[in-house]
Please model this.
Amino acid sequence: MKTALTELLGIRYPIMQGGMAWVAEHSLASAVSNAGGLGIIAAANAPYDYVKEEIRKTRELTDRPFGVNIMLLSPYAEDIARLVVEEKVPVVTTGAGNPGPYMKQWKEAGIKVIPVVASVALAKMMQRGGADAVIAEGCESGGHIGEATTMVLVPQVADAVSIPVIAAGGIGDGRGFAAAMMLGASGVQMGTRFLVSDECVVHQNYKDRVLRAKDIDTVVTGRSTGHPVRTLRNRTTRKYLEYEKEGKSFEELEALTIGGLRKAVQDGDVDYGSVMSGQIAGLVKKQQSCREMIEEIMQEAEALLKI
Ligand code: TUI
Model:
């Protein structure tokens, strides 16, 4: 399938993998790129040397295009912004902020820049700043989220900009892919579905929680602090939501979740850790290779889009 996104990035299928913190490393990113999508390494809160090594390992495993996601709240965001230029990384995506200050250096280095936006206003600003495409991410997504759903955000962003729009949030199969195209997207980004892939290195307990999740098993914590985060419900989210209702301080809330994602991803502590997941977890029922996932989604979508 040829779309504005496959043309822009030189990839076979218009499917990107989300830059999931602690999850999206070289093994997952190279598997998605080798399967014809765009794999992404998440820089998250990691320092320069760690991300540099991840880029090297990814290049060892694939000669296809891949990207690095820069989480703009990271204390190392500036270092990683420089690293992607030094390493001539083909694609950069950004999240959780406005990458405006870095755009010029990335564009001058010939990097394709694709910021995640959660509003029409930021999408327009990114287009003015030279972005090659935008990812319109709805609040069905896991992790740090905005306000609007994918269903309302994607068509409004598609109307507002002339660069390609990639839909993210709540997409997990060929139906979601086809729906995104109907809303004006040129491709999709998926996180939760790839999280349970064979090549994804998260602890099996984490994958099992996602595979067993039902439609209404995610919750959003942190609305009161201005950092809403969607995760699967567990002991910690229950306590967090109680604390928020009681008006506990920012520090008390932070203390509950600090290091929680690492605990879930690496130690498999899914009862107390932070099990970030999108709402589409309820639909994700099979652990497969990234290639099987991508090919299945494309077959479903192509059949639907021909109707
Ligand atoms: O970034 C994400 N998802 C993430 S980052 C992350 S690590 C983290 N953990 C705890 C707290 C904070 C971060 C886990 N999940 N998705 C992309 C995304 N970006 N979603 C929403 C946005 C966004 C929101 C507002 C982007 C820009 C924005 O406005 C920026 C501005 O200044 O106007």
